[in-house]
Amino acid sequence: MTLSPALPTVRPTVGPALRCPDCGAHPVLTPTPSQPLPGGTFGLLRCACTTYPQIDDIPVLRRGRIDSQDHLTGRCEVAGPTADELVALLAADRPLDALVALLAFPPPAPSSRPGLRLPFTRGPWPRVALAARRAEVRAMLAEHDRLTAQDWMELAYARSSDRIDDELLPYFLARFGQPRFLATMSLLQALPSLPDDASRPVLDLACGFGHVAHHLAARRDPRAVVGVDRNFLQLWVARRYVAPSQRFVCADRVDALPFDDDAFAASVCSDAFHYFDVQQGALDELRRVAVADTVLLDRLGNVRLAPTDGPLERDAAGYVRLLRGAPWRLTCEDELLADYLAGYGPQLASPRHPAELDAAKWLMLVTSTDPRVFADHGAFAEPPHAAGRPTLNPVFEVTPDDDGVELAFRFPSTWYAFENAAMRGYTSAGERLDASTYAALLAGRPSERTADLLRGFVLLGMPERYRRPPGGSGPSVVRGLARGLLRR
Ligand SMILES: C[S@@+](CC[C@H](N)C(=O)[O-])C[C@H]1O[C@@H](n2cnc3c(N)ncnc32)[C@H](O)[C@@H]1O
Predict the structure, then answer these.
(1) Is 68's C-beta closer than 6 angstroms to any atom of ligand 1?
(2) For residue range 339-360, what is the model confidence (pLDDT) as tens digits?
């Protein structure tokens, strides 16, 4: 399983040195002889104790099966290849097969009715269906530079295994205009500026599809980010489409982060910390890897208020206790959102008693030994949601007519509406655009309506290759599989 010793060895391409979560050594990368995707390096990462795969620039520091796991419970949603299988494929110089194995989620069984479903879960069907999906993924990879993040999100969440919660599609695709994301962008104003060492990136733990990494790359005061998550497909879409200038690592041990002490300017964890079953270990690690122990915990569920987001939520005092006496400030999503809509960043100068936040569902906790982090931030120089290419918010339905389009706000699902009800308070109910304004909008060109549409959250700053233009046919399992098979 070893590559030819004549091949060059290089350091992994991930900004700060990677550290094996088990032996603590810095792995050394041996690239595979073939490199199937432009700009990405595939290879084997060797440390003192093991060999890890690196797939298209993403080190996979996991052992055993690299499943796609449910966000909340960690339950396996899609069984993936094992780390050893990936290492064997790379050692045999089959890097594209390794990537396909990670991205090809099986299609759903053609019927979900218990009696009719059985034949599709046994015998040859699952193997045939997976082979067809692999062909489809290969076809998508062959034209990956013409696709968008939306195409891959739909593949994973609208056209794959019925064990995957289909609410994940609107949750991630229509993320940039959500109340929680406005609050996140506001909180990110509190990241310390380090004139002495601006080259240190920010760690985004449990980064999902890299929405935070995109924002930090695109905003006026850009920051390099290393995003870590356990779900490989999300990271790959982040690396290729959502935040291609940032770095990503696939790892699942939040209490053994694969980085040296003080590797980062700060650590961020957004909308995920309350899922972790090792919260004390995770917070100790987030502090260890950040200069001045600076950590921004964004959107922590408050157990005092139903519905809870899983069984591991705490109240404000409970989260503060995890800090072991380090200095902190607390605020909440509702306060950040109200200040955001008034044009202001986070107010962190004044200490609060945790009990003051008992009635807030979504808490934000900032800790640092650098007192400069605890400041009241003034008016935004530009609204944070303008950072990126101005793109139509996916919650708008588009109806073309003879001389333009009608845009109408529609929540994509009942659950999305419940979770994001506050959007109605600041997002336009609908707009009419003439044909030339709409054409400019689709091309990403500014028009005289751009500022006004950004004010109404009709346009949002997004990555260049995030959404397909509206219209066209929706996701279809059969069409996708047929395209892959025809291409093969
Ligand atoms: C609700 S999503 C939030 C994603 C992202 N932070 C955002 O705000 O868009 C929660 C994320 O936590 C990740 N996650 C949960 N437990 C994890 C663990 N032990 N290690 C790495 N990632 C984890 C999930 O894979 C998922 O991407």
Answers:
(1) no
(2) 999 999 999 999 999 999 999 9
